[in-house]
Structures are given as C-alpha cells and as structure tokens.
Design goal:
By secondary structure, the chain is α+β, with helices and mostly antiparallel strands. The protein folds into two domains: 196 residues, Ribosomal Protein S5, domain 2 (2-Layer Sandwich), CATH 3.30.230; 168 residues, Alpha-Beta Plaits, CATH 3.30.70. Strand 4 and strand 5 form a beta hairpin. It is globular and about 55 Å long. Bound molecules: alpha-D-galactopyranose.
C-alpha cells in the first residue's frame, strides 16, 4: 500500500525521527534531573501531505488502526492507539497557538515497537517536523524551535495519549547529533552534545531487546512518578534535583529508596559526563552497573529478563550493562569491546535459553543524528 494508492496523490515529503537509547540517567527526567540519551539508527518515517481543511487521515504500514477525523475531534483519550501520538501533536501545537491544518499521513517505517527504544517519541517527532514544515511554523530549523516542537510532542503523550512520561525521548529524537550523547538538563530544558563515539575506542553499545513488551501506560510508571513527587513535597522542595542523601534519609520507608535512586542517578550522570568529556569512555562501565542496581533494587523497575541480560553480558566481558528506558521489559544495553561482541552475544542468548526466556534480539548501535526531512 503506497501513499498514492491510499490518498490518490503524492506526499509533500518524508520525515524521519530516530529511536533512542538512554546511556544513563534513567527515570529522572520527570524529577528535573539529568539524562544522557543518544539517537539510534532505527527511524520512524512518515509520508505527509497538507490538506486545505481540518481533517486528519492517518494510516500505518506497521500497525493497525487507521484513523480519520477532524482536528476538533482530537483531545484527551481521542484518538486511541498509535494515531493519538500523531493527532496529539497537531492538537498540542494548535493549543500552543500555532496555525496548523489537516494532513494525510502514512507511517512507512518504525523504530522497533515496545522494545524500550522510544518508538512513540519517534512517531511524534517525525510528525511534528512534518507539520512544522508543511504549515510554515519555522520551528524545525533552530534548537529553540525544536525544543518547542519537543514540548508539543510531550504534551501529545501526556495530555492526549495519557502517558505521564517525561521529556527525555522527544528531546533525544529532535536534538541528538551523530557521534554524541545528549546531556539533557530537565530542570531548565537545556541540552549539550557530549562526545560519545564508542567505535573510536574499539567499543560497541549492544542493545539487548528482551522482547518482553514494555508498556508505559500500565500504571507502574505513573506510580514511580507519583512517589518521586510525593518525596519532593515531603522535603518541601519543588523536585528532588537539589536533594542530598542526608535529606533523603528522613523520608518514609516507602519513599526513601525511590528518592535515593533519583539522587544517586543524577550524580552518576555527572560522573559519566565528566569521563566522556575527558575521553575516558572505557571507564564508565561501573557507573552503568551501579545505575542498573539502583533501578533494580531502589526503583524496582527492572525485570528478570533485564537482570539476566546485564549479568550474562558482564560475565561475558562487557565493561558495564544496564536496563535502558522505562523498564519492566524492553531493552538492556551493554558496553562491549568489539572483539568480544560475537562471544558475548552467544553467551547472552545461551543464558536466556537456559532460563526458558524468549530469544533476545541483539544489535549494536552507533550514536546517530536527530530527526530530519528525508525527501
Ligand atoms: C520512558 C519515558 C521517559 C523516561 C524513561 C525513563 O522512556 O518516556 O520520559 O522517563 O522512560 O528514564
């Protein structure tokens, strides 16, 4: 099925946005923390044509559920399914005062779904960039403008889809650059490119997709976020960004470990960035390991498959390994010397088979460029 077959004309263009891997700084983007994602090569691609009315026609080659309606039909909870991520972006841009009209859209390719690699943000951001260009909003060409687009994508996800996620994934998709990770300060929204080129150091970031489908909207994510907000309120602070470990120790027993994760994770991001800026990439492994331990024990968002992926990778020679993304399934990452990739991948697959888990998908990822028009 082509755009022409569906809509009877050619698209005005094609836009693509990448998925992301978060190197470190997990579950801190809604606590005004620091995170360090990078864009991956896998992209979501949308073909789009502007319409001269207010109708939206949305189709995907990757997922069921075509949607057709008016912009006025879009709002909290509507449309459901993947179409909400696209329609929500137009809704959010309009609510922010931008003049956008209807579109015909076909999703022709996608970042792997449910793998914890932010396929939803990639969909939002590719659509946002298309809409920006087709309606002449003038946002896609500058960093400040892209931050505005990212905010609309976050609003689509929070307000229309109803997933209370932070802004890391959208910032990564729109602002990341090849050969770098993106240091994102979610307190003031600023971002800085940090040199991150594993291949130059003889290393590979392996992504181990457990193929246990992760769902953000299932309640656990919202519970963690609520606990973190409650902890900040109990300390009389706007967020846990500035909290110290001494202050955290005064919290109630159910909140303390959650808050401790936030505070220690932000510190680990700072240390990681210091090492990367100093060209000492090979030394970040223990920080990745500590991040995973904190997510597994203090934050309790890991899973048996993610834990096994990390331990098996370490035993087979990874410099460090951790879950990445929201958790409860999805993917883990391992920083691996290039000469160990094949043996390590075999070892992880064997460990999964022994445990009776589904065979994981394993691939290397290079820090790639952010969203762009492709034709
Ligand atoms: C998901 C959310 C992000 C972030 C991560 C955890 O990917 O979309 O905003 O909170 O989980 O770091």
């Amino acid at each position: 099925m082509t755009f022409r077959e569906l809509y009877g004309r050619e698209p005005d263009g094609r836009w693509a946005a990448p998925g992301r891997v978060n190197l470190i700084g997990e579950h801190v983007d809604y606590a005004q923390g620091l995170c360090l994602p990078f864009a991956i090569a896998e992209r979501t691609v949308v073909e789009v044509a502007a319409r001269d009315d207010d109708r939206l026609r949305l189709r995907s080659l990757a997922e069921d559920g075509a949607w057709e309606g008016a912009l006025a039909d879009v709002g909290p909870g509507s449309p459901g399914g993947w179409a909400g991520y696209v329609a929500g972006v137009l809704w959010a841009l309009r609510r922010a005062g931008h003049r956008v009209g209807g579109i015909d859209l076909l999703v022709t390719d996608t970042v792997p779904l449910g793998a914890g690699l932010s396929s939803s943000a990639a969909l939002e951001c590719s659509a946002a960039l298309a809409v920006d260009e087709l309606f002449g909003l003038g946002l896609g060409g500058s960093i400040a403008g892209r931050r505005t687009l990212a905010a609309a994508c976050v609003s689509a996800e929070n307000d229309v889809v109803g997933a209370a996620t932070g802004g890391m994934d959208q910032a990564a998709a729109l602002l990341a650059t090849a050969g770098h990770a993106l240091l994102l300060d979610t307190r003031d929204g600023t971002a800085r490119a940090v040199p991150f080129a594993p291949a130059a150091d003889g290393l590979v970031v392996l992504v181990i997709d457990t193929r246990v489908r992760h769902r953000l909207a299932d309640g656990q994510y919202g519970k963690r976020r609520a606990a973190v907000e409650k902890a900040a309120a109990a300390l009389g602070m706007p967020s846990l960004r500035g909290a110290t470990l001494d202050e955290i120790r005064t919290l109630a027993a159910d909140l303390m470990p959650r808050a401790r994760h936030i505070v220690t994770e932000i510190a680990r991001v700072r240390e990681t960035v210091m090492l990367l800026d100093a060209g000492r990439l090979r030394e970040i492994g223990p920080l990745l390991d500590a991040s995973h331990a904190s997510l597994a024990h203090d934050y309790e968002v890991s899973s048996a498959e993610l834990d096994l992926a990390c331990t098996a990778a370490r035993e087979a020679g990874a410099l460090g390994a951790r879950m990445t993304g929201g958790g409860f399934g999805g993917s883990a990452i391992a920083l691996v010397p290039v000469e160990r990739v094949a043996a390590l991948s075999d070892a992880v697959r064997a460990a999964f088979a022994d445990a009776g888990f589904r065979a994981p998908h394993i691939r290397g990822e290079e820090p790639s460029a952010g969203a762009a028009r492709v034709s």
